[in-house]
């Protein structure tokens, strides 16, 4: 089964993560099927390709709990961003 989860990069005490689609039986640092975005927790910065994410979810991929929360917050921020830009 394909799982959408975090792939750790960065250095000690300075974590950076890639949001990836990979087989759930692989190790955390194993072979990746596709990179869907990045997550920098110290800067609270997320970049994501939502079309690719939606394609994997439509094909039956499961999200990890952490990724589910990140995606939810990202979608809410994207929905609120055009409203803020229009009012300025």
Features of this protein?
88 residues; alpha+beta; S16 Ribosomal Protein, Chain: A; 2 helices; 36% helix; flat
Structure description:
The model has no long low-confidence stretch (mean pLDDT 89). A five-stranded mixed β-sheet has the order 4-3-2-1-5. The chain has helices at residues 50-58, 65-87; strands spanning 2-11, 14-23, 34-40, 45-48, 62-63. It has a single domain, classed as Ribosomal protein S16 (S16 Ribosomal Protein, Chain: A, 2-Layer Sandwich). The protein is α+β, with helices and mostly antiparallel strands and 88 residues long.
Brief synopsis:
This protein has 88 residues and is of the alpha+beta class. 36% of the residues lie in helices and 38% in strands. It has 2 helices and 5 strands.
Give the arrangement of secondary structure elements.
Layout: E1 2-11, E2 14-23, E3 34-40, E4 45-48, H1 50-58, E5 62-63, H2 65-87
Parallel strand pairs: 1-5
Antiparallel strand pairs: 1-2, 2-3, 3-4
CATH superfamily: Ribosomal protein S16
Task: Please report the total strand number as a whole number.
Answer: 5
How would you spell out the order of helices and strands?
EEEEHEH
pLDDT < 50 stretches: none
Average pLDDT works out at: 89
Instruction: Please give the radius of gyration in angstroms.
Output: 14 Å
Share of helix among residues?
25-40%
What is the CATH fold-level name?
S16 Ribosomal Protein, Chain: A
Shape: flat
Helix/strand-derived class? Answer: alpha+beta
Architecture per CATH nomenclature, i.e. the level-2 architecture: 2-Layer Sandwich
* SS field, number of helical segments: 2
Distance between the termini: 45 Å
Total domain modules: 1
Main sheet: strands, sense, barrel:
5 strands, mixed
**What's the CATH first level?**
Alpha Beta
Query: How much strand content do the residues show?
Result: 35-45%
Widest sheet: strand ordering: 4-3-2-1-5
């Amino acid at each position: 089964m394909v799982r959408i989860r975090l792939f750790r990069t960065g250095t000690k005490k300075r974590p950076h993560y890639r949001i990836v689609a990979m087989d759930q039986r692989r190790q955390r640092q194993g072979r990746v099927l596709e990179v869907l975005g990045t997550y920098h927790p110290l800067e609270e910065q997320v970049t994501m390709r939502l079309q690719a994410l939606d394609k994997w979810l439509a094909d039956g991929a499961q999200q990890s709990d952490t990724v589910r929360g990140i995606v939810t917050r990202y979608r809410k921020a994207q929905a609120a961003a055009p409203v803020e830009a229009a009012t300025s």
